[in-house]
Amino acid sequence: MRVLLHPAEDEIRLENLFHALSDPARLEVVRTLIALGSEQSCNSLGEAMAKSTFSHHLKVLRESGVTRTRVSGTHRYVTVRSDELNRRFPGLLDLVERSGPPTLTEAAAAALSAARA
Amino acid sequence: MRVLLHPAEDEIRLENLFHALSDPARLEVVRTLIALGSEQSCNSLGEAMAKSTFSHHLKVLRESGVTRTRVSGTHRYVTVRSDELNRRFPGLLDLVERSGPPTLTEAAAAALSAARA
């Protein structure tokens, strides 16, 4: 199995987080994950994008420390590293969350409405 | 006189701020400006960098809305748009300030010690 690299909490650098979040599509993915509040399947989260594009965005988010990707069989699941980021750079995720509502994909909207039901 | 473009407060976009702050040198310039707390001459602020490199960084910071550049004769002065940024994206500048002490240039260190005297 391919090992996915994640920076340790104390290796997360603010400039790398800023870089990861400077792309509108990646910012949108993070806003959606924050709104959903739980781990999401990469398949459903990336349904609106070309697979290679979405994979690239997830890699940048993961390598900067914004997200954690978990592999289970042939599936991947992604989550925001909220606890670690809130400890290390308090206010960053609030800023992202407050900056606008996510434009959810259909699957994400369904997951969100299920989570709120 | 060449007109320097600055985005209006309501045109400032979070992803553009993140992009501007994703470069270590630019992040450092902003940290230094925050620490100094007042408008600085571009000549003294950029003394540690090649002039063209520093000009480019100042352009990116200005066009994203992080800083305001004022031209006076042949001199340029730069300041962080703190009031506007704190209204529009509260927490962003705190995050930058808290992320580490600035590694000041000699001129900036002198200005800082003068400001604190």
Topology, pairings included?
The structure is a homodimer.
Chain A: H1 14-21, H2 24-36, E1 40-41, H3 42-45, H4 51-64, E2 67-72, E3 75-80, H5 82-88, H6 92-98, H7 106-116
Antiparallel strand pairs in A: 1-3, 2-3
Form type of chain A:
globular
Query: Which stretches of chain A are low in confidence, meaning pLDDT under 50 for 5 or more residues running?
Result: none
- The count of DSSP E runs of length 2 or more, i.e. the number of strands of chain A, is 3
Number of helices of chain A: 7
How would you describe the oligomerization state of the chains in this entry? homodimer
Euclidean distance between termini CA atoms of chain A: 36 Å
Category by helix and strand content of chain A: mainly alpha
Biggest interface, chains and residues, is: A-B, 19 and 19 residues
Side-by-side strand order of the widest sheet of chain A: 1-3-2
- Report the biggest beta sheet of chain A as strand number plus sense, adding barrel if it closes: 3 strands, antiparallel
What's the overall average pLDDT of chain A, rounded? 89
What would you report as the Rg of chain A, rounded to the nearest angstrom?
A: 13 Å
The SSE order of chain A reads HHEHHEEHHH
Strand content of chain A: 5-15%
What share of the residues of chain A lie within helices?
A: 40-55%
Keywords:
homodimer; about 120 residues; 7 helices
What can you see in these coordinates?
The structure is a homodimer of 117-residue chains. With 117 residues, chain A is mainly α. Chain A is built from seven helices and three strands. In chain A, strands 1-3-2 form a three-stranded antiparallel beta sheet. In chain A, a hairpin with a 2-residue loop joins strand 2 and strand 3. In chain A, helix 1 runs antiparallel to helix 4. At the A-B interface, helix 1 and helix 6 of A face helix 1 and helix 6 of B.
